[in-house]
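Lab channel / #folding
Pinned by the channel admin:
"Please post every new chain as: sequence first, then the structure tokens as a reply. Keep commentary short and put observations after the output so the thread stays searchable."

First post following the new format, from NK:
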Amino acid sequence: MDHLKESFEEQGFVRLNGFLNKEDVERVRVDAKWVFLKQMTSRGFVAHCDIDERQFELGMTRYFLEDPDGFINCGKTCQHLISLHRLSLRENVVEKLIALGVKRPNICTRPVLYFNSKHLAKSEAYYRSPPHQDWRSMQGSLNAMVIWVPLADVSKDLGALEIIPGSHVWGLQDSREDEWYRRIEGLSDAQYQTVAVSAGDVLFFSAFLVHRSGNNITDSIRWSCHFRYNDLEESTFVSRKYPNPYIYKPQQELITNGFPSADQIARVFPGSRTSATPS
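Reply from TO:
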């Protein structure tokens, strides 16, 4: 374990092969696919839910092109899967964070699930993230850590993550705002190392590690997710009063005008004897 921590401190990342059960990882992908399938079948984009991977991907492309609002809603819904959140809180995940130096791990922000493909994006920025450091959006503890999890085997051709080993000690790099978020410029392609992974493998890396998405040159979807953690004991995080740049708030207007009616709600609770109108 000491060797693992030393490697992490030197390189800014460690790759752990077979760290998660493949069944738990696959559960997240299956649950996410079900969200899309439920909507795609109801709208006739696919005939039924029992289809192969290629048919699913073709259905996803059609859904994205013909009903982008519905597609986006499904994507948002997938970020709240119980299986996804459960994966981020596994005991061995927390133990490994502590072993690698995050003394008191705390969730920085919600888990993020990705389903990247050139056929499901308005532009390259939406399926191939540019060079960046995650700390720029986290702004938490200096030893903040990110866990990147492939939800299927991710080869170089499928757009495997590309990292610059040792870049975590460069400090916060200058970046410019772009269509995606912010990008770091002026780096050479030769500096990057491709990290091809299999389902069950996990990449732990410093929030300061410079990385980018590889180029998915296939027609398939690259499924992955990542989790972010701060350290409640890191001294600068404490002295800065635990800042958090993420803003979550609901909109005030109803998304569907006139919905729901009292009768619609009453039908959900058929056993209720309460009047459908206030007295």
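NK: The domain at 2-268 is CATH 2.60.120.620 (Jelly Rolls).
TO: also worth noting, The chain has one domain: 2-268.
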